[in-house]
Amino acid sequence: MPRYTIPAIVLHWLIGLLIIGAFALGITMVDIPGITPTKLKYFSWHKWIGITVLGLACLRLLWRLGNRAPSYPASMAAWQQSAAHGLHGLLYILMFAIPASGYFYSLAAGVPVVYLGVVPMPALIGPDPELKPLLKSVHYWLNMTLLALFVLHVAAALKHQFIDRDGVLKRMLP
Amino acid sequence: MQISPALRRTAAAAALVLALPAFAAVLKTDPAKSSVSAVFKQMNVPVEAKFKKFNAQIDYDAAKPETAKASLDLDIPSFDLGDAEYNKEVQKKEWFNGAQFPKASFVSTAIKPGAAGKLDVTGKLTIKGKTADVAFPLTVKKEGAAQVFEGALPIKRLAFNVGEGEWKDTSMVADEVVIKFRVVAAQ
User: Fold this and answer.
1) pLDDT at B20 over 50
2) Any idea where the domains of chain A sit in the sequence?
């Protein structure tokens, strides 16, 4: 069974781990009451990871456009293939939309992003008290959507591996 | 020689007008167009927070800048970071202690013409009950019918005990804070 290319595999797992890290950090930091140095640190790290994901997602999209994904096994039902494509498409969209919504939320809150504390990122919008709560809930709900899709994604991979035993997961394993 | 009442009135008015500049240089500031903010760096991220309430007093005559006087009162509880939770936090003891020190103030001690058409201002800045001597360049310009006074004053927050305990760590919030102001006054 053909596998994904090495760059595709590396980007998949790297971005996956970074997203899990940023998600965990995000959930943790917003639960810290008041402001503490730890909370501010977590916010900065969360944003740095988000920018990293966005950058890697661009590379990944370019690579994906230039390289075909390996085809599914013939034993896989057509509707399952369509569902898989649809799910992957949505995950790609969220990979861009979530960091972007967080970035604009930060800008609307009047806090520009300085990548790794060194590189000031462009302030595409100014502080905006009206947009701020809107972007906050957009960022939150996109993440909850991602969580649901992530569960589906993992469940599907495990089903292919342990129930169908059709080698689909092996295409993406390191 | 008889001085007519009309002439006398004119002379009195003229004397009053001549005497005016000495007393009338206290400018009428426009709070809606004026602003005072503090820019601090948190992990190298510049964040600007506004003082929503303040009172600026400027006694200025362009012909005699060295006689100018300026003072500024800042309402500490009006300090706005754009987030209700953070606003509450910075009023706490380790930051501004707004309950005990609700006012910060600046009073000029000397104003002299400086380089590039600016004025060199020295004065006393009081924040959180601590007073320090400060100096900064002040720009005066005309915008339409208004006079605009602009400047930026870098201070060290720790000199005023702003940020105590764990917040003394300047790697989180830098020691240097820039107070930016723009005061618009009618001529």
Assistant:
1) no
2) 6-70+86-166
ipTM of the complex: 0.80
Name which of A38, A41, A111, A118 to mutate to probe chain B: the one with the most chain B Cβ atoms within 10 A of its Cβ. Answer: A111
Cα of A98 to nearest chain B Cα, Å: 21
Does B18 fall in a domain? no
Q: 3-state class of B22 per DSSP? A: helix
Distance, CA of B118 to CA of B113 (rounded, Å): 6
- Domain assignment present for residue B44? The answer is yes
Helix, strand, or coil (residue A156)? helix
Structural domain of residue B100, as residue ranges?
25-186
Q: What CATH number corresponds to the domain at position B90?
A: 2.40.128.110
Contact B172 A114 (CB under 8 A): no
Q: What's the token pair of residue A29?
A: 């930091």
Separation between Cα atoms, residue A154 and residue A160, nearest integer Å: 10
Task: Tell me if A40 and B82 make a contact (CB, 8 A cut-off).
Answer: no
Supply A52's token pair.
Answer: 């990293």
DSSP character at residue B29: B
The first and second tokens of residue A68, run together, are 């075909």
The number of beta carbons lying within 10 Å of the beta carbon of residue B153 is 19
Q: Closest partner residue to A112 among B45, B81, B169, by Cβ?
A: B45
Q: State pLDDT tens for residues A19-39.
A: 999 999 999 999 998 889 999
Q: Are A34 and B166 in contact (CB under 8 A)?
A: no
